[in-house]
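User: Hello! My lab partner asked me to get a predicted holo structure for this protein. The small molecule is zinc ion, SMILES included with the sequence. Please write out the structure tokens.
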Amino acid sequence: MLGLRMSPTLIGSEIYRGSTYGPKHPLAIPRVSTALDLIRALGWVEPAQYRDSPRATPEQLTRFHAPDYIAALMRAEATQLVPEADRARFHIGAHGNPVYPEVFRRPATGAGGTLLAAELTRHGGVVHVPGGGTHHGRPDRASGFCYLNDAVLGLMGWLGQGLTNILYLDLDAHHGDGVQDAFHGDPSVFTLSVHEGARWPFTGEAGDVAGGHARNIPVPEGYNDSEAGWVLHHAILPIIRHLRPQAIMIQAGADAVAEDPLSRLALSNNAYRATLAAVMGLAPRLILLGGGGYNPWSVARCWAGLWGVLNGFAPPARLPPAAEAVLRGLTWARAAGRNPPEHWFTTLADPPQPPVPVRPEIRALCATALRDLPEPPEAMESVA
Ligand SMILES: [Zn+2]
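Assistant: Hello! Below are the structure tokens for the protein in complex with zinc ion.
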């Protein structure tokens, strides 16, 4: 009974299948549907573990988002048109945030999934929401392919339950700016983002602590598994052990892998699994989100592997035929999709990277991140 209740929950939705941002957009590719298909083909999810994501209501969304922005997003879906005033003000149909058939329902489903995850973990537990992780979304505008910010909404859900000490860990190649800004100066939510420096949105520099309760690790081009291991052991884990959070939310954008077209980082998916494995036991509540990721094979293999970590499943040396068929069924219009390497079809785990020396700038970034850490909120309360 207890074991059954404690097994991780996977929240997905069929809305992602066949939904695309348009043929020329980086999000033309299927991601959540492929990850779910791969997980199922591996036999890694019991029916009782799966929950269909509810769609967040406008009332739920306006806990963070501006009502006129939500109304504009619903209007854009209904009409498939955006008045120039809405385009300028809300960045819908502009700046990489296209109008597409599910432009309200799809992000609202992602938000509903993360809100459900916060509810399901009220008394502890582990939930994976691969459709979540839209970390750039702003209260009153779309940003960076993100219309809503499900991560912020989920964190607000936890705060609403009375939690006072939450850690948000963002592994996406891009800075988790929307989440950091939403909790600027809030001692209850500590945000930690590891991302490529000098890349859009050009925020999240090493000295940016957002009022004290944030740290940023802007890593250089070529960031690899050896360096990710250093960051894990010399920044992420020390920060978590210092803060002792009641809950951890991880945004696992899969765009920091070497073969992603939108970053110049060079991780394998082994680095993601290693980080999750080390972090997952450090708080009684864990929500794992998706995020970026623009190579369809990499995203599905990375996220399926992370679900495996949550469940204690090691990647098989070679995928079973049904799982291989899922990956062979993908197509990708970019050049790298014309002749994909065989291991994108036949394996879940990337080949191990040979260890390399960790660059001094990585070590320096970690040392900076540990400087002047705030005391955990409980400790402040007991002093008061
Ligand atoms: Zn990203």
